[in-house]
Specification:
Largest sheet: 8 strands, mixed
Number of strands: 8
Distance between the termini: 38 Å
Helix content: 25-40%
Strand order of the largest sheet: 1-2-3-4-5-6-8-7
Strand content: 25-35%
Low-confidence stretches: none
Order of helices and strands: EEHHHEEEHEHEE
Oligomer: single chain
Number of helices: 5
Structural class: alpha+beta
Mean pLDDT: 95
Length: 191
Amino acid sequence: MDPVTLRTDRLVLSVPVPADTEDVIAYATDSDVVAFIAMPEPYGHAEAHQWLTTVVQAGWAADTRYEFGIRRADDPRLLGTVGLFGIAGGGAEIGYATHPDARGRGLVTEAADRVLRWAFAPAPEGLGLVRVQWRAKAENAGSIAVARRLGMRFEGRRRSAVLHHGVRHDELLAAVLADDDRSATTDWPAT
């Protein structure tokens, strides 16, 4: 699939490109990102270039991963990404990572919501997916908050499922279906 650009009132969501290397490094080396997402360490130009070309561009070309750069409409700087991956059988997984400048303003929720609306829209306007799931370490309060605001339904907790920096962590699972009422409050356990 050719890359798609999505828009909201405040954001432009477009494929990250090699010119975004410095911005990718800035958020990929942020301590909050490193604490919750498995990233190569150290993470520099080679790692960012590999991710932007081998993962992002190849994913779009092969229809296996659709990664969107999060940018303010009035500022071309890449603030993070939201992506769909593991695409198969009408389902996918959503994930996001952001620079500290994008946190606490609802930008990630807004971006992820727009990507979900595209994912569930019937072809050719969207992917026509039926289900999108989410996973995160149980202590990742920011990611959990976004998933809840997106209307994700809690599906379970996998105990000691993730090995990160030599320590085992529980992982939470949630999902949303194309026909779910995402405005409805859903029950999540205390983490």
